[in-house]
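User: Structure please.
Assistant: Input sequence and predicted structure:
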Amino acid sequence: MNPTGLDLPPLVAAFVFGLMGGAHCIGMCGGIMSALTFAVPPSMRHPARMGGLLLSYNAGRIISYMSAGALVALLGTLFSLSATARLLLQVFAALMLILMALYIANWWKGLLKIEAVGRRLWRFIEPVGRRLMPVVHLPQAFALGAIWGWLPCGLVYSMLAWSLAIADPLQGALLMGAFGLGTLPALLATGLAARQLSHLIRHPATRSVAALTIIAFALWQLWSLTVHNLH
């Protein structure tokens, strides 16, 4: 069962989703990536060392996404979702993307109400991450990335709706893994050029481009769902 509603294999669609969401990652998560970069002592910020730490951060983050995908998909198996329920989840995921795009561009902040649910969990997890800084070795970076992966994020929540619809823990984990790999290029670029991109990340034009890119992807998903269900 393809939970994405797109004319692509599910893992490919998830990767594309993450790649398109890279604009969101630059607009919203770039500041976090920069903070993680600056958490490394200045004497250790040479390219080879930073490359390894950034990969470790993101490996931990993707593992967290996969864990969440498996848990949510397991929940889907318990509910034995009907075809109608799965369709509604697909539509919900697309609408979440649009809400997130409006949030990124500062056009409307309604998504904060949905992310508030995740913030309750984040209040317990965030202090653990603080104790891991400054980062000086790879396992420490991996652990910090694994914690960062639970940060409240509308993009991740939209993807988890796909995992819930697929109702298969292994496939849910793989779906979230493909999504995480799609977000990797933007976050690695942001981490390696943290200082150079800091002003670009905050610029309203960057946020607007990110928002419009995500809205286009969401509309593509909704169009694909309409076409599939008309046939």
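The chain has a mean pLDDT of 82.
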